[in-house]
Amino acid sequence: MQVLHLESSYLCHLSCPQCIPAVLRHSLKDPPYHMTVPMLDGLLKQLRNDGVESIRLVHFEGRGDPLVNSRLPDLIESSRRYFPRSLIGVTTHCSYPYMPWVVRSELDMLRASIDGATPETYLKYRVGGSFERAIEFLRKLRDDRIQVRSALRVEWKYILFEWNDGDSEMQRAVELAKELQVHLTFMRTHTPGRSLRFSTDGKLRQWVRRFAPGSAVEQTFQLRSSGKAGVMNVSVNRVPSPSNV
After folding, report:
1. Residue 145 CA to its chain's centroid (Å)
2. The pLDDT value given to residue 234
3. Quick check: 86 and 56 in contact, CB under 8 A?
């Protein structure tokens, strides 16, 4: 199996325009709202019994934010136990106080969804979140990774909209990514408010090649063609520096 998507929680305290408003989540679905370890163990055991010998990527993501589930470290450990060679990733908005378990778990990759490089532009899409809290999460994660010499890969997923696609804002993101020691990915989307400045991958790659060599260019799922790789495929989309073109 190439990718196993797991939604560890249905809940999220943000109300992003293209997602479920936080105030409606409890009324739209009955409990349980979080995946439990026995639930995941049953699924993974069934996959093994059905002949699935390996999974390239186990990815915790979904309509809810994975970090809402306090048992996420145990879910990651369970995934590693059943499929020890898998790459295990989590996508989160990071608008939480820092969680030290992240760098000490079996997690291989954490992707932070932060769409903007200032509090004002960030809040236009990540409604209810906190830019300062998300950046502080990554800052403390950087320090913790250095302290324990962690190999955890941290990526910053920056979706481009008409309000956050200016040169100064994107260059600020590049500077912040260097400071935080994270891999920056600029993403085009199909949703209302999408960046019209970067209407094609080619236009975005041209900008990245000039101002942010080494950053990645990617598309949200709905734009991604069926011929491309699955989620977290930044390695094949990373734009080289001019000397390597």
Report:
1. 18
2. 34
3. yes
Tell me the whole-structure pTM to 2 decimals: 0.89
42: tokens are 């049953």
Q: What is the pLDDT of residue 11?
A: 97
132: helix, strand or coil = helix
Tell me the longest C-alpha to C-alpha distance in the chain.
55
* Each residue's pLDDT tens digit, 166-209: 999 999 999 999 999 999 999 999 999 999 999 999 999 999 99
Both tokens assigned to 23: 């105030």
What gap in Å lies between CA 203 and CA 198, rounded to an integer?
6
Selection from 95, 102, 144 nearest residue 123 by Cα: 95
Phi, psi angle pair for 158, to nearest 5°: -115, 100
- Tokens 């999408």 — which residue? 194
Q: Hunting for tokens 């995934």 — which residue is that? A: 79
